[in-house]
Amino acid sequence: MAFKNHIEETHGEQHLRQKHLMLDPKPRGEMNAMVMEAMHTTTWKFWVVVALLSAVVLFGLFWSWGILIAEGMGVAGVNRPSYWGIFLVNTVFWIGISHAGTFISAILRVFKAEFRRPFTRAAELMTTFGLIQAGFSIFMHMGRVWRMYWLMPYPNQRLLWPNFHSPLTWDLLAITTYLLSSTMYLYLPLIPDLAMARDRTKGGWQKIFYRVLALGFRGTEGEWKHLRSAMNIFAWAIIPIMFSVHTIVSWDFAVATRPGWNSTIFGPYFIIGALHSGMGAVIMVLAVVRGTMKNMKYFIRPEHFEAIGKLMLIISMGWAYFFFNDFIVQWYGGDKWTQTLLHYHESGPLGYLWFFMLFVNIVIPWSVLWNKRWRSTPWIVFIVGLLINVGMWIERYIIIPISLTINRSPFTWKLYQPGIEIPLGIGTVALFILLYLAASKLIPLIPVWEVQEGQMAHSLKKYGRESVVTVSELE
Amino acid sequence: MKPIDLNIIGAKGAIAEEAEGKWGMAIDEDLCTGCQACVAACAMENNISFVGEEDAAYGRTMHWIRIERFWEGEYPDVRTTSFQPMLCQQCGHAPCEPVCPVFATVHSQADELNLQVYNRCVGTRYCGNNCPYQVRAFNWRDYERPEPLNNQLNPDVTVRQRGVMEKCTFCIQRIHQAEDTAKSEGRELQDGEFDPACAQACPADAIVFGRVDDPDSKVSQLSRQKRGVKHLEDLATLPRITYLKES
Amino acid sequence: MAENISLLALFSDLEPAADAIDKLRDLGVAEEQMNVISGVPLNEAMLGRKEQESNVPKLAFAGAITGFLVGSFLAFVTPYWYPVPIQVGRQAIIPGPPTIIVLFEMTMLFLLLATFLGVFLDSFFPYYRPLKYVPEISDGKIAIFFSCPENQKDTMINSMTILGAEKVEVAEAKQL
User: Most CB contacts within 10 A, which of B151, B246, C42, C130?
Assistant: First the structure.
């Protein structure tokens, strides 16, 4: 649809249009062509990265996992008392990453935060792919992974059912629900873009691929109506699911009779931590997508980094608040075991990790992201996002193996040393990136129709001398 | 002011009743010499794997009973405390049980014991984390038994696969054998008729096993002594083992 | 009576498309004989069309009820299928708070599964046989498909072209 541009644009208006994607519309056909071109432009560097990552996945994930299954948990670093190690650190970490997708595509959709439009899909892909890594990590962790189907509630001849008292069973139900619903929520808004890709693919396997996945979507009034109505339900319903998932993950720890874990604030503390690492990961992905893919500088602009950077700053403050809340109550409590544990966190052999965590999770974001220009610069926020992710990984490392070192039975105290968890963990990272690379070549990474819908709704209005951005409600 | 009668609000009565249990132990730390005979006997009786030096040093011993030894002060002014045999307390209110996603560790209402169902275990190790006494043992690998120890396996006890959790059973095979014998002879099981492997092997008679619900049994009489303490009683896990120690 | 034929008129803008729909109505094309296909979701009100019905919310509600029942089955029935209901940690056989979690997760899962299924059922997905369509639609054009008696064909084409249609032609079902 054409947009009536003002004949005489003031300098301020030009500046606003340059800044905001929503005010800088292009014809839909042009945007489609740009997205298709981004999808199809593949350099040799891409294939080098794919080859390297594939090698890492083959060795780190499949080969190492084979050894782990064949030899037993002994090749990992877990021991008594640290029965849980990096596998669960990674599980919590990946579930945390997955929260960013839902946060952006559901919460920002519900609250009509318009800057979300170009990257809802890029974020939602992280949810699905992150949850796959979380699933892998939790299965690696099991002593007899070949019996993993015993966790599922399925009818069987001997009428054995899982134990619904166990937080791990809640976890299974919650993560399954979250994985399925986030995948469906990824797919629904993708259908019109798949139809777009189908219309501009001439032949070959791609044509079949898009034709099958687009399901025969044309864009009739009814199809749009059903799609939007479903997306609205999804956006509202997936938010409580997201909250429940990480709360239940936190209950794995919080319901246990262990010093340091038995905390009532773990639910919200884990959720804010998940968002902390998730937003860091989103901003990293966006910086890479903008930097490496063709035509993405039009869709992903400094305004988006600026907006996410602001959210990161707020979330970092929230994380600090919950961390301090958890800490001071435990510190004040005077329980001997908890005191010992807190002391061990700070001045044990890995005490430097505790201080490093606080540095990268609080000091770095607070000192960088307050500045509008810095938080609009992709490479700066990329580094901040990376550091936050390292910090949040360390936070889970402190909560799981380091806290497990101290228990109420001092005779067993023993520090955990990772073993085969390291290649397996690197393998999940490589698989995540690999899946993302594959997706960037197979599906339109930008929800073009949502961008166009947003551009239709935005306009500039003059109040006296000032031009103001306005958004109309189209739904 | 009139004191509150705990029995009226049911609290005291409920705790006392729950705390009773069926089978129990009294371990006299003043008698224990730390000779580790119980550890060896338990391993022989229950087909426990030998993990080797390296894994043992890394905290992967699989003993179902261990002798804990502590000391106070810095060398050379060291004061040792008494030896403390630590094994599954067969809690009446066990933290390990509800957290298993597949019901591999459950409470036996008949025997008042914590059961571990090896062939149901999938190895999430949550029970091991949640045990405040840290007495659960995980099969980290398939450990080999060097010749001729492979011929020594107890046929009454299963051999466990890698990846499953295990723990002290109070030698449930012996309990059931003794009960069956008594039943076939048409009589009641008598106190002290049988012992689990650790109690049987203890040269100092520091471990006494029996019915704690029978006030006249030896274990009940010992447990009532002023020396008796339960471990981590504040967690309300209702442990079935009383440690006797002159404080 | 003359054979009905199917025509499509392609518009770039919203206003002419809305005008065209009004014109078609004046020319005697019934509401249900018109179908608007667009590359972005358009509000029915924008084109002066009556609102579409969607069964998706109803199906979602039915899904939620199903999920609640599935959750109830898992939480209340399966524990009693063991020969001896299993006691763990002195908790009740059916524990209160964990049951709420099971009910919540199952309700939400089936709610969303039904919503997803609802889109498929309501939109007749997947459908791979030929359909009336032009690829320009996903470039943001608005296509009005309508049927009229064969003898009115020229009138229709003329009036659509006057109103600014980029292209008016006989609609053919094509493999998408």
Answer: C42
- Strand-strand pairing, B241-244 and B23-28: parallel
φ/ψ of A356, rounded to 5, equals: -60, -40
Interface test with C, best of B18, B109, B127, B131 (most C CBs within 10 A): B109
Answer whether B95's CB lies under 8 Å from B132's CB: yes
**Residue A462 host element (H or E):** strand A458-463
Q: Which of residues 315-334 of A touch B (CB under 8 A)?
A: none
- Chain C residues near residue B107 by CB distance under 8 angstroms: 86-90
Q: How many angstroms separate the Cα of A117 from the Cα of each of A36, A106, A129, A307, C141? A: 18, 11, 20, 12, 21
What is the predicted pLDDT for the residue at B13?
A: 46
Q: Tell me the C-alpha distance between A464 and A466, whole Å.
A: 6
Q: pTM score, two decimals?
A: 0.93
State pLDDT tens for residues C74-118. Answer: 999 999 988 888 889 888 899 989 999 999 999 999 999 999 999
Structure token pair of residue B80: 């040792």
Q: Both tokens of residue A340? A: 């010992």
* Interface membership of B102 toward C (CB under 8 Å): no
Domain boundaries, chain B: 11-244
CB C176 within 8 A of CB C131: yes
Residues 55-114 of A with CB under 8 A from B: 71-75, 78-81, 83-84
Residue A403 · residue A346 · CB < 8 Å: no
**Close Cβ partners of C131 (under 8 Å, ≥ 6 residues apart):** A216, A218, C173, C174, C176
* CATH numbers and ranges of domains, chain C: 4-52+131-174 (3.30.70.120), 56-122 (no CATH)
Helix A120-141 to helix A167-187 angle (10° resolution) is 150
- Using DSSP's 3-state secondary structure scheme, residue A421 falls into helix
Query: Does any CB of chain A come closer than 8 Å to the CB of residue B128?
Result: yes
Of A361, A357, A137, A341, the C-alpha closest to A249 is A137
Contact A174 C105 (CB under 8 A): yes
By three-state DSSP, how is residue C74 classified? helix
The residue with tokens 């992974």 is A145
- Interhelix angle A204-214/A190-199, rounded to 10 degrees, is 150
pLDDT at A4 over 80: no
**Distance, CA of B4 to CA of A381 (rounded, Å):** 63
Q: What is the ipTM of this complex?
A: 0.92
User: C123–A217: do the CB atoms touch at under 8 Å?
Assistant: yes
Chain C partners within 8 Å of B94 (Cβ)? 88-89
Question: How far is it, in rounded angstroms, from Cα B105 to Cα B96?
Answer: 7
Confidence of residue A267 (pLDDT cuts 50, 70, 90): very high
B105 to chain C, any CB pair closer than 8 A? The answer is yes
* CATH architecture type of domain B11-244: 2-Layer Sandwich (3.30)
- Distance CA(B160)–CA(B138), nearest Å, equals 10
Residue A173 vs residue B79, higher pLDDT: A173
Residues found in chain B:
247
Supply the Cα-derived Rg of chain B in whole angstroms. Answer: 19
Contact C37 A220 (CB under 8 A): yes
Chain B CB contacts of C89 under 8 Å are: 93-98, 107
| C90 contact residues in B (CB cutoff 8 A) | 18, 92-93, 107
Domains of chain A plus CATH, in order, are: 33-471 (1.20.1630.10)
